[in-house]
Specification:
mainly alpha; 39 helices; 0% strand
């Protein structure tokens, strides 16, 4: 609490306050003073005083009596003024002055009453402190006196004390030696217990310190320590062997505590799992410039917990082992041993993994021998990445994903050991304990792993009889390996005949050695020879080609296994780049060179051979162009088995190309070979279908000399460039809905003119036509197959289906960069339109396509142009098939109508109610053609096939009228029935607008019934509807002028009638000429 006496606003107040307090003043108040105010103040006083009353009095003094606080204040003059009751005096303030003085005295009295005890205690305490100070001063003086006395006594010389001191030093040294000997005697047991509990770092430090002590200058003179020194040296060797074995057990996952560093394969695994257990990282020197050295022992002290099992943390235990080897000064030897045992350990790791997988999949492997479904075989045999059964796939996937997970853990362990070794190297260089320490490089670790992976991949892809020589191997080595079976063991010591005398001699020597070794090594037990044998492994560096022994195969080798082999291998190699980010991948032993060598020498040759076999299997045989059983999964209409099979091959090649995205040119070349081979087969199929004669004879003739094959007229016309140019403009062919009827009519008329020109004014023969409905269906199936095949290839080349892998996105980006290099030609654009057609496919087909969303055929430059040309050739062949179907119907129409007109009888005595037999046959053929087209093609292709047929019929009926010998009204009625029968039949598959054009033919023949005069009158009234030649032919039929050409004998009356008709015909012809001339002008 602060002192209120010191809180005045000015020093005058402080000084005056002291003056007032020092006065022992008791005012003599008048009697009436206590009447009101004093009594009230007494009642208001608190039980315990505080400084508030005093502060109030001070404030009142400051407010009304400020002049009393000044330095030049004169109390006498104030006293006189207070006693002066005149107008200039202050008699009136006297009572106020007395009241203030009373309040001030009462406030001071209250404060003194409350705090007097503290004042009294402080005075007593001060006296006690002063007494203690006086006592301490007395003791200090006495101590100084004693020190001076001791100094004088110590300066005196005494020889007896010196001899006693020397004896005490000797006794201390003897006791120290005895304690050291006792400690050395118990050290082997301590080390053994530490080794048993796996606290190897403490054991190594204790052992090294003990050996250093035992071989010291003083200890070497003691002969009783010779046995202990031998025991310690033996324990050093034992500890080194144990450290090497423990290090290999954890590096190569032999210890159960290492199981958390890798994972077993799980169903539908797509990538190597991320293991959460990872080694601790050492701070790199370039991370912080001011950071201390990462290899500094002071900054990174490795501690070992004696209460914890160090093996529970595998990486920590390996670091402890490396530190222990550093303590033993055996790092160089340990690293050399690791390098020598690397190939053997990797080989054993693979064998152990094979055994584990075989045990896990024992029941599954028994199911592989069961026959598979035939349909599944047919669907999957052409997929290079789906051909094997799911059971086989799971076994091989289990082996590869598990093995690669283990190899990743092994390589991570080696990387950690390498890091620890480099850290130790820094330490030993600083300590100058080793002049040189060579730490093995990663390529020394990767080389045997690479050999094992290469051997495994080759074993599951190729049979032992197929020797594929690597470019990195010399010829004599590859020849030697190809002459022997890798899995056949050359010899075994276990198969040698026993020798009893030799075994007895060996047992005697062995017992002597074990007995001697037990005396040197405490705790040694030779009762279990297997335990002793597992202490270390001897390596013959001149016989380290372990790969020549080979491994047990879980499934049969087959090129189809590539789909299972590639994805785990690529995932493993990508993970290695994460494990060893600074490794030079471009050197001769890098990841890229390994894959390149494997692809060039093993993988691609196998894939090429398999692709050739699949092409041969798919295209050779009578069922190559039969309908695929599961075609509804791909299209509404049937597709040839060979097309589905080869599309599966192409799609699997695309997927494989993205799985192993290098040497893409080889994949593209294989796809190009598939397309060329299939086109060749389709071309042969087309010619064998449209050829004249039997199919077998045609095929044999085509194989001998393709140019000598005679094909049908429709097939020949379908390859005429002029006619093909007209057909390609047809709106029903191009799906052009904007074309009007006038354009279509003009195009059809031009086509008729071209066809008549190609027919060359001759009659078609029946041998030039195709009557076999199977051939017509085959043409439709071939067209739809080729169209579907081209659309699938274009879909593969389209970037819009690109999703998924990073390699696929990279290829898509490359295609985007090259898509504007050059504009597509008109033929290429026409071919691309098939890929853009809105084809509604079944849901099953859509699900099947979802599996191929990531497939893409990356093409650019010259290769892209070659593929464009090839696909355009496919399109042209497909269009030729469709044009052949269209022209075949038109050829049938020409053939039968010409036969019906030229060989039919239209000069009938009686009325007929049936059309001509040739017309009936034509209708049957057109219906059969329509059925064949509907069985193979969509409705729009049906419209194209029959488009323009009514116009052709009208043209033939009118143009061929000149070949009608004689005509009468019954013949006109028969011709009308022919036209109606054709019109009614065509209305089923031709638009009614085109069918209505056949009325023109009926009107043409109705002119006969009008007679010469009626025909001329109709021209006057309605104008000419036909040409002059067409009118002239009807006029000739009316006057029967063709009768002159009959070979029948005539009498005189008939001859005279014929002359009369001819004369009338000439007259009417002149009238016709005059009428037509009027309209022409």
């Amino acid at each position: 609490m602060s002192n209120p006496f010191l809180q005045s606003d000015s020093p005058q107040l402080s000084s005056r306050s002291k003056t007032i307090v020092r006065k022992n003043y008791k005012p003599s108040l008048p009697d009436d003073y206590y009447d009101d105010y004093a009594e009230e103040q007494l009642h208001q006083q608190p039980e315990h005083g505080d400084f508030s009353e005093f502060e109030a009095v001070l404030r009142e003094i400051h407010n009304g009596w400020q002049f009393m606080l000044e330095d030049d204040f004169d109390p006498v003059s104030l006293t006189l003024k207070l006693m002066d009751d005149s107008s200039v005096g202050k008699k009136r303030d006297y009572k106020l002055f007395e009241r203030i003085l009373y309040d001030l005295d009462m406030a001071l009295k209250t404060i003194v009453n409350d705090y007097y005890r503290g004042f009294n205690n402080s005075i007593g305490t001060f006296g006690g402190v002063l007494q203690y100070i006086n006592d301490s001063s007395t003791r200090v003086i006495q101590m100084q006196t004693n020190l001076r006395k001791c100094k004088e006594e110590l300066l005196e010389k005494r020889n007896d004390l010196l001899s006693l001191w020397h004896k005490s030093q000797q006794h201390k040294e003897m006791l120290s030696i005895l304690e050291t000997m006792q400690e050395l005697r118990t050290t082997p047991d301590k080390i053994e217990r530490m080794m048993d509990s796996k606290h190897v770092l403490a054991a190594a430090k204790l052992l090294v310190n003990s050996i250093k002590t035992a071989v010291g200058k003083d200890m070497m003179q003691i002969g009783a320590l010779d046995d202990i020194r031998r025991t310690l040296n033996s324990q050093k060797n034992t500890l080194y062997d144990m450290l090497i074995e423990e290090l290999h057990n954890h590096i190569y996952l032999k210890n159960s505590y290492s199981d958390n560093r890798w994972s077993v394969y799980t169903q539908r695994q797509q990538d190597l799992p991320q293991i959460t257990i990872k080694p601790r990282t050492f701070k790199q020197a370039n991370e912080e410039k001011d950071a201390p050295d990462m290899f500094s022992v002071e900054n990174d002290i490795l501690a070992e917990d004696p209460d914890k099992d160090p093996e529970t943390d595998s990486y920590y235990y390996m670091e402890i082992i490396m530190e222990s080897l550093c303590v033993l000064n055996e790092i160089p030897t340990a690293l050399e041993t690791i390098k020598e045992r690397l190939a053997v350990e990797i080989h054993q790791l693979v064998d152990k993994t094979i055994g584990e997988v075989e045990e896990r999949n024992h029941d599954r492997s028994m199911m592989t021998s069961l026959p598979r479904e035939k349909n599944k075989d047919e669907n999957d045999i052409y997929c290079l990445d789906k051909a094997n059964s799911e059971t086989k796939n799971e076994i091989l996937k289990d082996f590869l994903w598990t093995l690669y997970s283990k190899l990743e853990a092994v390589l991570r362990g080696h990387r950690f050991v390498e890091t620890c070794a480099r850290r130790v190297k820094k330490v030993v260089v600083l300590r100058a304990s080793l002049s040189k320490l060579n730490v093995y490089h990663f390529h020394e670790i990767w080389r045997p792993v690479q050999q094992e992976i290469r051997s495994i991949l080759q074993d599951y892809l190729t049979n032992q009889d197929q020797a594929i020589v690597s470019v990195n191997e010399s010829s004599h080595v590859s020849q030697f390996r190809s002459k022997r079976d890798k899995k056949q063991q050359l010899f075994s010591f276990g198969e040698a005949l026993g020798d009893d005398d030799l075994e007895d001699t060996y047992d005697t020597i062995k017992n002597q050695l074990y007995t001697s070794f037990k005396k040197q090594v405490s705790g040694f037990d030779y009762s279990d020879p297997f335990k002793i044998a597992n202490r270390s492994t001897l390596i013959d560096k001149y016989a380290n080609d372990i790969s020549s022994k080979g491994h047990k195969l879980l499934i049969k080798p087959d090129a189809y296994n590539v789909s299972v082999l590639l994805k785990p291998t690529m995932a493993f190699l990508h993970r290695l780049k994460e494990v060893f980010p600074n490794y030079d991948d471009q050197n001769e032993e890098g990841f890229a060179s390994f894959l390149d060598d494997f692809a060039v020498n093993v993988f691609l040759p196998q894939i090429e051979e398999k692709v050739m076999q699949l092409i041969q299997h798919a295209t050779v045989g009578l069922d190559a162009f039969q309908d695929a059983r599961d075609y509804k999964n791909y299209s509404k209409y049937p597709i040839a088995k060979s097309a589905v099979a080869l599309i599966s091959v192409v799609q699997s090649l695309c997927r494989t190309m993205h799985t192993m995205p290098f040497h893409t040119d080889e994949y593209v070349r294989l796809i190009e070979v598939v397309l060329l081979k299939f086109y060749e087969k389709c071309y042969q199929k087309f010619y064998s279908t449209v050829a004249r004669g039997s199919a077998a004879a045609t095929e044999q003739q085509q194989n001998n000399n393709g140019a000598d094959v005679k094909i049908s007229t429709s097939g020949d016309w379908a390859q005429d460039e002029s006619l093909v140019g007209l057909l390609a403009q047809n709106p029903f062919f191009n799906d052009d809905s904007k074309s009007n009827n006038e354009f279509i009519a003009a195009l059809n008329q031009a086509e008729i003119t071209m066809e008549i020109k190609l027919k060359n004014d001759r009659l078609l023969e029946s041998s030039e036509l195709i009557f076999d409905s199977k051939k017509l269906i085959a043409l439709g199936r071939l067209y739809h197959t080729l169209k579907w095949f081209v659309r699938e290839i274009w879909n593969l080349r389209s970037t819009k289906s690109m999703v998924g892998s990073s390699s696929a996105r990279l290829l898509s980006k490359e295609l985007q960069n090259h898509k504007n290099e050059e504009e597509d030609s008109a033929q290429v654009k026409n071919s691309k339109r098939w890929s853009n057609e809105d084809v509604v496919e079944p849901a099953v087909a859509q699900e099947a396509r979802d599996d191929f969303d990531t497939t893409l055929l990356p093409l650019r430059g010259e290769i892209a142009r070659r593929f464009d040309t090839l696909l355009t050739t496919y399109q042209q062949l497909a269009e030729t098939c469709l044009f052949t179907l269209r022209l075949e119907g038109r050829c049938h129409t020409m053939y039968y109508l010409e036969m019906a007109i030229r060989e039919g009888n239209y000069h009938l005595e009686d009325e007929t109610y049936e059309p001509d037999p040739y017309v009936i046959t034509l209708n049957a053929d057109l219906i059969e053609l329509d059925d064949c087209i509907n069985a193979s093609l969509p409705p729009k292709d049906e419209l194209f096939a029959f488009d323009g047929v009514p116009g052709l019929i009208v043209h033939i009926l009118i143009a061929e009228a000149t070949y009608i010998k004689r005509l009468n009204s019954n013949g006109v009625q028969k011709m009308t029935r022919n036209i109606l029968a054709l019109q009614q039949n065509l209305s089923n598959f031709v638009p009614l607008v085109q069918c209505s054009t056949m009325e023109r033919a009926r009107e043409y023949y109705q002119l006969f019934n009008l007679g010469s005069e009626g025909m001329i009158r109709s021209i006057h009234e309605s104008g000419p509807k036909f040409s002059f030649d067409e009118y002239r032919i009807i006029l000739g039929l009316i006057h029967d002028i063709n009768r002159d050409h009959d070979d029948e004998p005539r009498n005189n009356e008939q001859s005279q009638e014929q002359r009369s008709n001819s004369s009338n015909y000439s007259e009417w012809l002149m009238k016709l000429d005059e009428v037509m001339a009027e309209y022409e002008h």
